[in-house]
Amino acid sequence: MQTSAELDLEGSDEKLLVLFDTSAALAFVDAESPFHEQVWALASQSRRGLAGHALFEFLSVLTRLPMPRRLSGADALRLVRSEFQDNRFLPAEVSDRLADEFTRAGVVGGMVYDGLVGACASHHRLPLLTCDARAETTYQALRVDYRLVSTRGL
User: Fold this and answer.
1) How far is the CA of 49 from the CAs of 21, 24, 125, in angstroms?
2) Per-residue model confidence as pLDDT tens for the chain (154 residues)
3) How many Å apart are CA 134 and CA 63, to the nearest integer?
4) Could you say which of 18, 106, 107, 149 would form a disulfide bridge with 115 (CB–CB 3.0 to 4.6 Å)?
5) What is the pTM for the complete model shown?
6) Domains of the chain from N-terminus onward
């Protein structure tokens, strides 16, 4: 795991693709988030995608935010399509094996959802950006290459 300050997005002519979980995606688009400036600085110049089911979770969050920040379904989808154009998903054969892997790694309960996101990033060998410190245990157990954005030191 690397801290947000260690995210290396340079060194190539092609922009690095960074996958986001829901927490980082929301921070990226929400200027009121305490993580917004850090996430924006890290990833605004990168190719961005949502990791697996995080796309659907993010749509759900955007359409149930308190008013006046809540988006319609159509507006939420437009936002996702404009800001996260390189989404990645797990193939069926990989998904089929995850229950065994999660059980061996102790990924249970609500950790399973973070596990799906982390497994997607790992499968595609891409870094995952998160603002969710609670997901760190899951990402570590599954050996996900992730960057935790923290408000420590702000």
Assistant:
1) 9, 11, 13
2) 444 444 554 444 468 999 999 999 999 999 999 999 999 999 988 999 999 999 999 999 999 999 999 999 999 999 999 999 999 999 999 999 999 999 999 999 999 999 999 999 999 999 999 999 999 999 999 999 999 998 764 4
3) 23
4) 107
5) 0.89
6) 16-148 (3.40.50.1010)
Instruction: Check: CB of residue 21 under 8 Å from CB of residue 130.
Output: yes
Largest CA distance in the chain: 43
Angle at 121 between CA 124 and CA 102, to 5 degrees: 115
Tell me the CA end-to-end span of the chain in Å, nearest whole number. 20
